[in-house]
Design goal:
Layout: E1 2-6, E2 9-13, E3 28-30, E4 33-35, E5 42-44, E6 50-52, E7 61-67, E8 70-74, H1 77-81, E9 112-116, H2 120-131, E10 137-141, H3 170-175, E11 178-181, E12 186-190, E13 195-198, E14 203-205, E15 208-211, E16 215-217, E17 230-231, H4 236-246, E18 251-254, H5 258-267, H6 291-295, H7 306-309, H8 316-323, E19 335-341, E20 344-350, E21 355-357, E22 360-363, E23 367-369, E24 387-388, E25 400-402, E26 407-410, E27 418-419, H9 424-438, E28 450-455, E29 458-464, E30 471-477, E31 482-489, E32 492-499, H10 504-513, H11 520-523
Parallel strand pairs: 9-10, 9-15, 10-11, 15-25, 17-22, 18-22, 24-26
Antiparallel strand pairs: 1-2, 2-7, 3-4, 4-5, 5-6, 7-8, 12-13, 13-14, 16-23, 19-20, 20-21, 26-27, 28-29, 29-32, 30-31, 31-32
Helix pairs in contact: 2-9
């Protein structure tokens, strides 16, 4: 149990974050809000309710009394020993409740909420609809085989079964009256008739539509790209396949991306080729950050190529860490072609002419929004195909919302400029806000992007949006692998990253979330 004092009031809560068990005693307390030090989830200390993702579940709360100067906490032993997701039955009526409470649908309510996508944005939207009292039909549709799962695990723990990383079990969705259609892909939408058509020839009408179809990995466009054992990492099946194929073999990874660098440390195989066709969240950020930190934020914006990022004095630090594990880097180069024998890849040929033995090739060169099925419609999209939404996650089409990786939305920390941010926490926040506005609640998105990753046992935290920053303030030492970096634009902090400095990034996220500005002088 975590005992919290806010001024003269005491609260008692579960002591570990339901997301991944972070010790909340090391978190950040601001007013009635407690933020996890690891991944930025926030909870109300009076109710235990979620106020910020990525946690999908609330904290249990316990009775507190003060007598004769002593604080007493009363809890049932049974509640203390139950798994986190079943603790929240005591929270009925207190807001953002765990979806493991059962919310029944009413057959008299004929309205249908159709959610395209099987990721966290659609999941949180479905749960929020039920939590907010919607009793009509909710249908989630995905082209995958599985219920929503933790995609970050695909490159971190590649020996897990899909069921091990499910975010909600099928029976949980069923208990809450959420229909979940698998292996079903949307091919077109008739917005006038409010109907979605699927690849199998079927169709479904809707009253409100959420498009949360995510993004897909870019494919190689070189000779030999169609050879066997040239892989993308998108699903649990891909993860298992790569691990099986690469064990004891020569692995070549194309692209110095977030996925690529984590694959290096997950599989730890002899060779990793890198091409330069990768983008970065923050142009030039490698001037102050190790490349593998940058790679984690490079999934979602901008146009700076990796051949720019390598021209910095700080880059050798993380590469040396991976090189010590048998990884070899080929920077400032591109892949010319893949060669094979009997239909299987055997060799990667670089632009320099150098040849690398390759039993397995993994491609991590960026992503594109899954929005091709909307090509001939009037829905507004940007040049990349991302759907344009406002802060209520509304598109330009009535009764149509969008969320997650597939959207471009106004970012407060960018003065309202649009961006696509491919973070789990952001997608969950999108899903929540979309659900509220599908129910006419008129709520706007208010969140500070929060990102995390792990590299060889080292945990990186990042909050904010550093796109377009012009200066940095560095506290600590990059070489000693303990640092806090502030990203400055127009004299104020717009983002921060850290290694071994918890809970500083959570603290900065709370300040930014409150609307306060941190000046460069204050950062220094």
């Amino acid at each position: 149990v975590l005992l919290v004092r806010n001024k003269k009031e005491f609260s008692a809560l579960g002591s570990k974050c339901p997301h991944y068990g972070a010790p909340l005693s090391k978190g950040v307390l601001k007013g009635e809000r407690l933020r996890c030090p690891w991944h930025g989830a926030c909870f109300n200390i009076k109710t235990g309710d979620i106020e910020e993702y990525p946690s999908l579940d609330c904290l249990p709360c316990f009775k507190v009394t003060v007598e004769d100067g002593k604080v007493f906490v009363t809890a049932k032993k049974k509640v203390l020993t139950l798994p986190a997701v079943t603790k929240h039955k005591q929270h009925l009526g207190l807001g953002m409740i765990s979806a493991f409470l059962t919310y029944k649908r009413c057959l008299l309510n004929r309205d249908t909420m159709l959610l395209l996508g099987g990721g966290v944005a659609a999941l949180v939207c479905a749960e929020t609809l039920r939590q907010e009292g919607f009793t009509g039909r909710i249908i989630m549709v995905t082209k995958e085989k599985h219920v929503p799962y933790d995609k970050s695990k695909l490159s971190k723990e590649m020996n897990l079964k899909a069921e091990d990383i499910y975010m909600r079990k099928p029976e949980c969705l069923d208990a809450n009256g959420i229909e979940f259609w698998t292996e079903k892909e949307a091919v077109s939408v008739d917005f006038q008739k409010q109907k979605v058509h699927f690849m199998d020839g079927s169709s479904q009408k809707y009253n409100q539509l959420l498009i949360a179809t995510g993004s897909h990995s870019s494919s190689l466009r070189v000779p030999g790209a169609d050879l066997q054992n040239v892989c993308l990492l998108q699903t649990p099946e891909d993860s298992s396949k790569i691990l099986e194929l690469a064990t004891g073999k020569n692995l070549v990874i194309i692209g110095a991306s977030f996925i690529g660098t984590r694959l290096d440390q997950a599989s730890r195989h002899p060779a990793a080729a890198r091409d330069t066709n990768e983008t970065s969240l923050q142009p030039g950020a490698a001037a102050k950050l190790p490349a593998w930190v940058l790679a984690g934020y490079g999934c979602f914006c901008s146009s700076t190529a990796w051949n720019f990022l390598v021209n910095t004095q700080y880059l050798p630090l993380p590469f040396q860490m991976l090189q010590n594990k048998g990884v070899k880097f080929y920077m400032k180069t591109e892949l010319r072609e893949l060669k094979g024998k009997d239909g299987k890849v055997t060799e990667a040929v670089l632009a320099s002419g150098e040849k690398l033995p390759a039993d397995v090739v993994v491609v991590g060169i960026g992503v594109f929004p899954n929005s091709a099925f909307l090509k001939d419609t009037s829905i507004a999209r940007d040049d990349s195909g991302a759907i344009l939404v406002n802060l209520r996650m509304q598109t330009n089409i009535p009764n149509v919302f969008a969320a997650g990786d597939v959207v471009s939305f106004p970012v407060a920390l960018l003065n309202g400029d649009r961006s696509s941010i491919h973070h789990q926490q952001v997608a969950e926040a999108h899903g929540h806000i979309a659900a509220l506005n599908m129910l006419k609640k008129e709520k706007e998105l208010h969140t500070v992007p929060f990102f995390w990753t792990t590299m060889l046992g080292k945990s990186i935290r990042y909050a904010g949006c550093g796109k377009g920053y012009t200066e940095t303030v560095v506290k600590g030492s990059l070489e000693q692998q303990k640092f806090l970096i502030f990203y400055i634009r127009d004299g104020f902090v717009t983002a921060a990253a850290s290694l071994n400095c918890d809970p500083m990034v959570s603290l900065i996220a709370e300040v930014l979330c409150s609307g306060k500005q941190i000046s460069k002088e204050e950062a220094e």
